[in-house]
Design brief:
It is a single chain. The chain is of the alpha+beta class. It folds into two domains: 33 residues; 95 residues, Immunoglobulin-like (Sandwich). It contains two helices and seven strands; from the N terminus they run H-H-E-E-E-E-E-E-E. The chain has a four-stranded antiparallel β-sheet with strand order 1-2-7-6, with no helix packed on it. Strands 3-4-5 form a three-stranded antiparallel β-sheet, with no helix packed on it. The longest helix has 20 residues. The N and C termini lie close together (12 Å). About 5% of the residues have low confidence.
Length: 132
């Protein structure tokens, strides 16, 4: 991939993230906010792997679904609001409910060799890159 094509792919990804963030703002969405976990993605050359780290504090690991197909990694699930008998909320900022994060994969990955771990609220996904 040329430098210019990579720059265009980066720009496209940033624009998609911007629009996704805009829909998080209540005045634009017109309905309740949807939980959207933050994530980091980085690549290692030795061994050739793509690493994705997703913030999922308070999420039951059993409710998380991960798939990689057709150039897209999808992480989805649900964070449940804890039930507190007799509670009357005075302030609510923590986002609960269903979530889905989609990451475009610009490299070919070996989904069969992928692994995932969940520790201290962080989901770590390792996707081996396929040899060119």
């Amino acid at each position: 991939m040329t430098g210019r094509a990579r720059d265009l792919d980066d720009l496209r990804g940033e624009i998609q993230e911007l629009f996704a963030d805009l829909w998080q703002v209540p005045r634009f969405s017109g309905m309740h906010r949807r939980h959207r976990p933050q994530c980091d993605c980085f690549q290692l050359d030795h061994p050739p792997e793509l690493h994705v780290v997703v913030e999922l504090p308070g999420v039951d690991p059993g409710s998380v679904h991960i798939s990689a197909a057709r150039g897209t990694l999808v992480v989805s699930g649900r964070r449940e609001r804890p039930r507190v008998d007799g509670a009357r909320y005075r302030h609510m900022e923590i986002e609960y409910g269903e979530f889905e994060r989609r990451l475009e994969l610009t490299e070919s990955v070996n989904a069969d060799g992928a692994s995932a771990t969940y520790e201290r609220g962080l989901l770590r996904i390792v996707l081996p890159l396929e040899e060119p």
